[in-house]
TrEMBL record:
Occurrences of domain SHOCT (ranges): 76-102
Name of protein: Putative membrane protein
Organism, scientific name: Archaeoglobus sulfaticallidus PM70-1
TM region positions: 12-35, 47-68
UniProt KW keywords: Membrane, Transmembrane, Transmembrane helix
InterPro entries in UniProt: SHOCT (IPR018649)
Amino acid sequence: MDGFIHSMDWFGFPFFGFGMLFWWLLFIVIGFLVYRDANERGMNGPLWFILVILPMIGIVFLLLYIVIRESKAEKTPLEILKERYAKGEITKEEYLRMKKELEG
């Protein structure tokens, strides 16, 4: 550990580690209280519970999307060099010299 708090550390970003447990418990408790209040008033309790929990489920899916999405493939230095040579930005001698430096 380098002394900094990172988003993937246990105590980092509020949606990881203990923070994640806290937010889940908070949403479930609020959902239960809304459910109970809705039932006492003769409203549809399960529907209100679902409406309270739905944002948390959305946050989970957002986090999953961020974690498993494909990142853009970055070009290697050799590919960039080939593109520069193809565009005419560098001469053949510069290209061969730089290619030798990159490969060697």
